[in-house]
Amino acid sequence: MLSWLLGRERRPLLALLLLAGAAWAFAELADEVSEGATRAVDVRLLLLLRTAGDPADPIGPPWAEELGRDVTALGGVGLLTFITLASAGFVALQGRPRLAVYLLACTGSGMLVASLLKLGFDRPRPELVPHGQAVYSSSFPSGHSMMSAIVYLTLGALLAAAQPNRRLKVYLISLAVLLTVSVGVSRVYLGVHWPTDVLAGWTAGAAWAFACWTIARRLRRRGRVE
User: Fold this and answer.
1) pLDDT digits (tens, 9 = 90+) for 203-213
2) CA angle, corner 219, sides to 214 and 144, nearest 5?
3) I need a surface site. Which of 1, 12, 64, 102 has the fewest CB within 10 A?
């Protein structure tokens, strides 16, 4: 099954299907959140990560909360910007300057879209539990989750495309997905996002990454990126 899905002639179709599915999921989720239909589920899932009878205390030993902050930092603007610039520099030094510029354009525009979405929905942060990290913006969608999906999935796809070995391709994509999921879960664990904020960030970020990958394939075929 995996071999069939990864066949060269089927990859563009698969990417378009994933793009459409992710975009549709985000639109449906945004509609439900706007109507307040997800409140009960959000509260239940958020409290599952808290000690029974003490919402101020995340589940697990004391070091788990510190680990959560370490993981959530992987989706921070500073670190993602550094990773993107470092990756673009690496690609440029390999003799692919146009691909480096394209990579910067994908992530930069994605960051702008994430900020605009936050301003548009302006959803308050969770008030049920103390925040385990300082926050300065609105809640929906999760910027950490969306930008992690954009950066890690885009980089994972570009790196995987350059590998001749199928196991390496699967490894790189799996690593990108693991990083994206871990960052999102840490946001809920720290009490700074509702679960639906994170899910929306994942779907919007994945849709953006799929779109960037699809466009990159077309540009490469036309000789506009290396």
Assistant:
1) 999 999 888 88
2) 45
3) 1
